[in-house]
Design brief:
With 173 residues, this protein is of the alpha/beta class. 34% of the residues lie in helices and 9% in strands. It is built from 7 helices and 4 strands, in the order αβαβαβααβαα. Strands 1-2-3-4 form a 4-stranded parallel β-sheet, with helices on one face. Helix 4 (89-98) packs across helix 5 (102-112). Bound molecules: adenosine-2'-5'-diphosphate. Adenosine-2'-5'-diphosphate binds next to helix 6.
Length: 173
Amino acid sequence: MEACKDAGLAKSIGVSNFNRRQLEMILNKPGLKHKPVSNQVECHPYFTQPKLLEFCRQHDIVIVGYSPLGTSRDETWVNVSSPPLLEDPVLNAIGKKYNKTAAQVALRFSIQRGVVVIPKSFNPQRIRENFQIFDFSLTEKEMKEIEALNKNVRYVELLMWRDHPEYPFNDEY
Ligand code: A2P
C-alpha cells in the first residue's frame, strides 16, 4: 500500500476492522513510511467504540463508521440480538425536538464526535435525508444521553472469520 501511495495510485492509506493491537503493529512497524489515516469500523449509538476512538484520536487516525444506522438487519450476516437502532426512544425523542428523524440524530451524533459516517440507502428520499444533518447540533447533554445508549454489542461480527489468527474482535477493542 505504501508503494501504491508513492506511485500516486492512492491518496492515503486506510484500514478496516483493525483493533488497537493491529493498529499498533502498523504504527510501530520499523521504517513505516505512510501511516493509515483512517480505520473503518462499526460505529453508532449502540456501539460507540469509546476506547478505539480515543486511541485513534491520539494517533490522528479518523474513524470511519460503517453501519451508522444499525444495518439492514439481514439475519444472514447481522447479529440481531441488539434491538433496531432507529427505533430507539432516546434517538426518536431528540429527533422530535429538532424535527429530525432518529436516523438523522444517529448520524449527527457520529459526525459531532468526529466519526465519519457512511450510511447506505437504496431510497432517494432517505439518501437526501441522510445529508440533512448539518443544519442542527446536539447539546452536550444530548450527546451524553446518546453515548449512554452504548450496548457494546456488535451488529457485524464477521463470524465467518472467527478462526483466523488475526480475527480482530477477540480483543476488548
Ligand atoms: P433503505 O435502503 O431502504 O433506505 P446502515 O447504513 O447502518 O448499513 O443501514 C442501512 C439500512 O438503513 C438499510 O436497510 C436502509 O434501508 C436503512 N436506511 C438508510 N437510511 C435511512 C433513513 N434515513 N431512515 C430509515 N432507514 C434508513
